[in-house]
Design a protein that fits this description.
Chain A: Its cofactor is Mg(2+). Chain A: Catalyzes cis-prenyl chain elongation to produce the polyprenyl backbone of dolichol, a glycosyl carrier-lipid required for the biosynthesis of several classes of glycoprotein. Chain A: It is an enzyme of class 2 (transferase). The structure holds two protein chains of two kinds. By secondary structure, chain A is of the alpha/beta class. Chain A is built from eleven helices and eight strands. In chain A, the strands form two sheets. In chain A, strands 5-6-4-3-7-8 form a six-stranded parallel beta sheet, sandwiched between helices. By secondary structure, chain B is of the alpha/beta class. Chain B has a six-stranded parallel beta sheet. In chain B, helix 6 crosses helix 7. Chain B is elongated. The chains are: A alpha/beta, B alpha/beta.
C-alpha cells in the first residue's frame, strides 16, 4: 500500500513539476480554475465512470472565456435574473490610497464586465443597486461626483449597449437626479428598448419601501380612473405595479452582495422572497470572473423549494 | 516493426498514461479538498464546544442589548421537528434574547404555538404589534412572535387596500392629494399593517436555518437593514455557533447607506 502511494505521488510530481516549469517559462497563466477545468474535460471522456456520466447527463457544461475552459456550471441551472449590491468601492479606494471617485469608477468598470460575463453565461437579466435613496445623505461632493459618473458612463457606453443589443432600464425615484442625467437615461432607454435577450437594470435613487409605496399609489390612480376596483387588488396585480415590471423575470434568482456585509439594505424588498443570497467578503471592484463563478456554483448547488415541500 | 508503425502505438500509450495521470490527479485533489472540509468541520465543532463551555473569553460577555429583535427563519422540512425549535428558543432565552420572531413559510410553527409556548419556560406570545419597550423587570421573559408567508405579501396587499379605501373616501380636499402623497407614506403603511394585525418591528438580526440561503418569504417590509446569517441545518445546530453569530452581529457597524 505504501509503495503504491509512493508510486502515485511520484507520478503526479513528474507530471506537475515540468508542467508548472513550462508554463512559467512560456508565461502561460495557470490558475487553479483552469487546471481543474482541463482535468475535468479530459476525465469526462471516460464513459465507464458512473459519477462522471451522471454529471454529464445533468446538462450542458458552460464554457467561459476565450480558451473555452469549462467552468463546472450547468447551463440549464443558470439563474435567469442576477441582482447585485455593489458594495465596497470607497473601501477599495481607501485601501489603494486612491480617491473615492476612483473607487466608484473602478466599480462602474467592474459592473460592465460583470454584466458582460453574466450575459455570456446565458443569464438574461442583471440588476445592479447603483444608488440608494439613503445615499443622498452622503457628502454633497461625493453625490455630485456619482451623478456625473453615471452620466459620463451611460452616455459613453451607448454604442456598446447598441452593439451588444443590451436593453438598459433605470429604475428608482429619479425626481432628484440632475436633468442632464435624466436626459441621458431617457435616450438610453429609448435606444435600447427593442432588445429582448439581454437586460441590464440599474437602480438609481431606489428604495424597496418606496417601490412598495409607489405600487400602492399606482393602484390608487387606476382605481380612481375606474380601471380596477378594490376587490381586484391582489398579489399579482400589486407585483405588476412595482418598478421591476419592466423585466421579464422581475424576481432575482440570485442576489450577490460584496464587501462582507450581510443585509439587503432596502433593495428589492418585495422581489427577494425566495432569492438565493450570496454574501461575498470581496470588495466590489475586486469581484472578478472567479468570484462570480463561485457565486454561480454555490447557487447551482442549492436546492430551492420556494417555501413548498417537494 | 518499423518506426512508422511504432509511432501511433506510442502516441496511444502516452495518451492513455496521460489520461490516467490526470485522472489520478483529479482524485488526489478530491481527497485533499475532502480532507480539508473534514478538518475544518472538526475545527468548527471544537470551537463551538469551547464556546459552549465558556472557554473562550470574548463569547462569555455579549452585549445582548444591541439585539432588540431577532428573527429566526426555519425551513419547512425542519419546522416539522418542533423539539429542535424548542431547544433553540431555550438557548436564545439563556443568552438573553428578549424578542424572537419565528418564521416558516407554511405556518407550521404557528399551528404549534401553544405547545411551543408551554415547553419554553418564561415565554410569552407577542401581542402588541407596534414598537415594544423591553423594561428591565421583564428579565427572564422571552416574547415570541409566530410569522408565516401570509404575513408578507398578503398583509401588504390588505394594508394597501385599507389605504386605498381611506384615500377614496377622504372628504378633505381630495384634489390636493391627487398623487396620494398624504396617504401613501411609510408611516401610513406601518399603521395600516398594524390595523391588519401585523408587527412592523424591524429585526436587527435574522438567523436562517435550512439548506437554502434565502429568507423564504419573511415579511419584506420589515427587512430593510436586517443582518442575515445562514446557520445551516437546524438538525445540526450548535449552541456555540449560535453564540458566535450573535457575538459577530454585536460587532457590526452599519452606516445605513450614508
Amino acid at each position: 500500500m505504501v509503495s503504491l502511494f509512493s508510486v502515485v505521488f511520484t507520478g503526479l510530481a513528474l507530471i506537475l513539476i515540468p508542467g508548472l516549469f513550462i508554463s512559467w517559462r512560456l508565461s502561460v497563466p495557470i490558475s487553479f480554475k483552469n487546471v481543474l477545468g482541463f482535468i475535468k474535460l479530459i476525465t469526462s471522456r471516460h464513459d465507464d465512470e458512473e459519477e462522471r456520466n451522471e454529471k454529464r447527463d445533468e446538462g450542458t457544461y458552460v464554457n467561459v472565456g476565450e480558451e473555452g475552459t469549462t467552468s463546472g456550471l450547468v447551463r440549464e441551472l443558470m439563474p435567469r435574473h442576477v441582482a447585485v449590491i455593489m458594495d465596497g468601492n470607497r473601501r477599495w479606494a481607501e485601501r489603494g490610497g486612491l480617491l473615492t471617485l476612483q473607487g466608484h469608477e473602478a466599480g462602474a468598470k467592474r459592473l460592465l464586465e460583470f454584466a458582460d460575463l453574466c450575459f455570456k453565461l446565458g443569464i438574461e437579466t442583471v440588476s445592479a443597486f447603483a444608488f440608494s435613496t439613503e445615499n443622498w445623505g452622503r457628502q454633497k461632493v461625493e453625490v455630485n461626483c456619482l451623478m456625473f459618473l453615471f452620466e459620463r458612463y451611460l452616455s459613453s457606453k451607448l454604442q456598446y449597449f447598441k452593439r451588444e443589443e443590451i436593453r438598459v432600464s433605470v429604475i428608482g425615484n429619479l425626481e432628484k437626479i440632475p436633468e442632464s442625467l435624466l436626459r441621458t437615461i431617457k435616450e438610453l432607454k429609448e435606444s435600447t428598448k427593442s432588445y429582448k435577450k439581454k437586460h441590464l437594470i440599474l437602480a438609481i435613487d431606489y428604495s424597496g419601501r418606496f417601490d412598495i409605496l409607489q405600487a400602492c399609489k399606482n393602484l390608487m390612480k387606476k382605481s380612481q380612473q375606474g380601471l380596477i376596483s378594490e376587490e381586484d387588488v391582489d398579489e399579482t396585480l400589486f407585483e405588476g405595479e412595482l418598478v421591476t415590471k419592466c423585466a421579464e423575470f422581475p424576481s432575482p434568482d440570485l442576489l450577490i452582495r460584496t464587501s462582507g456585509e450581510q443585509r439587503i439594505s432596502n433593495f428589492f424588498l418585495w422581489q427577494l422572497a425566495y432569492t438565493e443570497l450570496f454574501f461575498s467578503p470581496v470588495l466590489w471592484p475586486d469581484f472578478n470572473e472567479d468570484k462570480l463563478l463561485e457565486a454561480l456554483v454555490s447557487y447551482q448547488c442549492r436546492e430551492r423549494r420556494f417555501g413548498r415541500r417537494l | 516493426m518499423d518506426f512508422n508503425d511504432l509511432m501511433p502505438l506510442l502516441s496511444f500509450w502516452i495518451g492513455q498514461i496521460g489520461d490516467l495521470g490526470l485522472d489520478l490527479l483529479w482524485r488526489f485533489i478530491h481527497i485533499v479538498v475532502s480532507l480539508w472540509h473534514i478538518v475544518s468541520g472538526i475545527f468548527e465543532a471544537i470551537l463551538s464546544n469551547a464556546i459552549s463551555l465558556g472557554l473562550i473569553q470574548k463569547y462569555s460577555a455579549i452585549d445582548i442589548e444591541k439585539l432588540r429583535c431577532l428573527a429566526v427563519v426555519v425551513d419547512i422540512e425542519v419546522a416539522r421537528d418542533v423539539s429542535k425549535v424548542i431547544d433553540l428558543l431555550q438557548w436564545l432565552k439563556t443568552i438573553g434574547v428578549k424578542q424572537v420572531g419565528l418564521f416558516d413559510s407554511q405556518g407550521l410553527l404557528k399551528k404549534s404555538k401553544d405547545m411551543i409556548l408551554e415547553m419554553v419556560p418564561g415565554s410569552m406570545l407577542l401581542q402588541e404589534t407596534g414598537e415594544k419597550d423591553i423594561s428591565p423587570d421583564r428579565k427572564g421573559i422571552i416574547d415570541i412572535e409566530f410569522i408565516s408567508s401570509s404575513d408578507n405579501k398578503e398583509a401588504v396587499v390588505k394594508a394597501a387596500n385599507i389605504l386605498l379605501e381611506k384615500h377614496l373616501k377622504s372628504n378633505n380636499h381630495p384634489e390636493k392629494d391627487e398623487e396620494g402623497d398624504n396617504v401613501f407614506t411609510e408611516s401610513h403603511l406601518n399603521e395600516a399593517l398594524r390595523v391588519v394585525g401585523e408587527n412592523v418591528r424591524v429585526p436587527d438580526l435574522m438567523l436562517v436555518y435550512g439548506p437554502v440561503r434565502s429568507h423564504l418569504g419573511f415579511p419584506a417590509w420589515r427587512l430593510r437593514y436586517t443582518e442575515i446569517v445562514h446557520m445551516g441545518s437546524l438538525k445540526y445546530m450548535r449552541y456555540g455557533s449560535l453564540l458566535k453569530a450573535i457575538h459577530k452581529f454585536t460587532g457590526v457597524r452599519q452606516n445605513y447607506g450614508v
